Amino acid sequence: MKHYEQYKKRKIAEIDENLENDAALKYYKRCLETNTLPLPIFEKIFKKTLCLYDYILSEGQCQGIADACDLIDHKYMNRVLLSNCGISGDNFATILEGLIKVKDFKSVIYKHNELNSRSIEKLGPLFWRRVPHHLTELHIIDCKIHPVALEELFDLMLGPCFVQNFALVNAHHTEGSFSKLCQYVKTSPRLVELNVSW
Q1: One-character DSSP codes across the chain
Q2: Domains delineated in the chain
């Protein structure tokens, strides 16, 4: 264990020397600091979309993604698709804190994971961006989400929100959340596509 700690310190020092412009190194450094195996996440970016299917992400990896967003150019990545990654609501909030830093971030597709009040709160800054820097697409599909958090989501979306393509699939609505959804649909200035199937 002592040798590993020495190796880790040496690697972190090497990374710090080259950290200024490399998002992947920043991700790798956080994984080392949290004793997490770094997955080849940046090899999963296709057509500006980070596509992670069935990658189980730990807290350290989520922190690493958020850290890397400081250095990610929106011309390289401006969308995420996270499907069945075992992401908790708190870890999704951590990722969103990073995505907020990416200029012109456009799309979040989030499937078979979890949302909570904290992650919904972190969606707010993406909703509030003005055109043309706004979030255009939000899909929440088959996610674990508490009805109270669902109402909080619509409270945010009833503010200045410029999402054009919205999907909320297999969510368990209360009367209050469904009423707020209807209000959002009626008042949204930009909504073009809607999927609320269950």
Answers
A1: -HHHHHHHHHHHHHHHHTGGG-HHHHHHHHHHHTT-PPP-GGGGEETTEEEEES----HHHHHHHHHHTTT--TTT--EEEEES----HHHHHHHHHHHTTSTT--EEEEESSB--HHHHHHHHHHHTPPTTSS--EEEEES-B--HHHHHHHHHHHTSS---SEEEEES----HHHHHHHHHHHHH-SS--EEE---
A2: 2-195 (3.80.10.10)
Q: How far apart are CA 28 and CA 135, in angstroms?
A: 27
CA distance 85 to 46: 18
Task: Report angle CA 179, 175, 144 to the nearest 5 degrees.
Answer: 100
Residue 14 in tokens: 């090497």
pTM tops 0.70, yes or no:
yes
Residue 127: Cβ within 10 Å count: 18
In this predicted model, what pLDDT tens digit does every residue of 155-188 receive, in sequence order?
A: 999 988 999 999 999 998 889 999 999 999 999 9
